[in-house]
## 1
Amino acid sequence: MYAVHAAAATDAFEVIRGDRSGTGQPGSIEIDIVNASSVDRAFRLAQPDFVLLLAAMSDIDRCEVLPEQAFAINARGAETVANACARTNARLLFTSSAAVFDGSKHGYREEDAITPLSVYGKTKAWAENAVKTLTPSAVVIRIALVLGFARENGTNAMLDSLTGRWKAGEPVFLSTREERNPIDAASLSKMMIDMLADHSVSGVYHVGASDSISRYELGKCLAARMGISAELVRPQDDPIPGRAPRGKDHFLLTEKIRRLYNLEIQSSSQVIERCFS
Ligand SMILES: NC(=O)c1ccc[n+]([C@@H]2O[C@H](COP(=O)([O-])OP(=O)(O)OC[C@H]3O[C@@H](n4cnc5c(N)ncnc54)[C@H](OP(=O)(O)O)[C@@H]3O)[C@@H](O)[C@H]2O)c1
């Protein structure tokens, strides 16, 4: 997802990418958010005015089997970055998740009680609290599902994983019971940059389409849009044993951000179309 953020940001900001592998490329800096001295060093070198904290262990199933590592990255790592932002007066935007809710009702507002089911959701809930406490001016964005093609390998991008398997002629099994309201990476990036630049905005905001769609229906729409045989999209009706618990209905209500920016919230089908434009 990073390249899209960078592309959206470069008009307004000088962008420095934080990366734990330390690519050494111009405009990038080594940072491991689990390591406080690495975070301090990166802040000293980059002296950021604005910080977009995307780094996370984002694979929900991996978090479930490696809870300590998930907590160290997603919770304590976010806390360490928030601490550095507070110390240096940098403005922070933190990406959280609809997984802070249990998905047992249709439609969640920003102020609804937090009820995470998975380790991932719990780490994000913990991080939100740390971010809000340490950096009250921070923006916390909750997202149900981002759609977009990544510009590098090895990311969490659902579209890349689907197209990789479809190109290999493999069918994908997608849940008929998990509903999400997606947002495309380009719209999300623009929204995040606007919010980061707008010092009058703070607190939690939900983003996403005006309607929710099951992963199976989403897969069918994507396959149709890409000219992939419908045969390669198969329904998965029951939760897969051994995977992290996932809420049924993660529909994030977006009235708050709609009012803030007088936005026209896109439908799921418009969001899908935007991924290809
Ligand atoms: N994609 C979605 O649908 C979705 C939905 C809700 C919320 N979110 C949130 O949005 C953010 C971005 O998600 P994404 O889908 O773009 O995830 P992603 O592709 O997995 O990217 C996460 C990045 O975090 C980096 N990272 C992991 N541990 C780190 C550490 N200790 N120090 C520094 N960097 C570290 C990873 O780098 P390595 O390559 O080194 O591992 C990776 O580049 C995450 O906070 C995620 O929880 C995403």
Note: DSSP finds ten helices and 13 strands in the chain.
## 2
Amino acid sequence: MLMAEMTFEEVKVHLNHNRQLIVPVGTCEQHGPHLPLNNDILCAEILANKLSEKTGALVAPTINYGVNLPCDKFLADTTTISEITLRETVLSITSWWREQGFSQFFLLTYHGDPFHIKALSYLCKDIRLLEPYEIEYADILEKQATIKHACEAETSLALFLYPEKVRRERITESDIPFAVFEDYLFHKKTIPPARYTGNLGFPSAATAEKGEIIFERMMEKLLHDVSIPFEQHNGCR
Ligand SMILES: [Zn+2]
């Protein structure tokens, strides 16, 4: 259920029986030559909508911008906001919703940049970060054991969720070992690595079938994570 499509009177009635709000947090980040800029936005929104169906929680309008790798500045379309801007945005928008009666906030992001995650972590005791991609992949994927960027896992999920937007003919392999990419991931290096085409891992091994298994496993994780009592989770910043 999308809050954006409801009136304030309808939201007020909804608050009588459910006070949870899911806030999808996307980012504007290139996803190689084969996936669109809004991959992480689309995935967060689809997962949020499914979670809403299962829990009855409303879905807030998406935060479309997030914190990105400096080395992606050289690939047209990616942009970033600072950690402080992201954190303040979340604190601002939730403060009014809290006064209106929402009592539990779930920030659902599909973007794992460590500084993006840091900005969304431990904001307040009633705000919980959900990271659906933190699941086991080794038994699903053929060429990778973990999720990378626009890789076998991300491309599989895209093929399952929105195949019409995937440019299969543009898929390239340019895997860069983690030990080499780590400095880029932690924003220590800003010039793109050699042979970097915007994606990591092995997207040519992606299939919609793998994507379906990944999606179901992510939903299981989300349902588990929203069910943890709030008192035992998160601190206050
Ligand atoms: Zn992504």
Note: The beta strands are 20-25, 58-59, 104-109, 127-130.
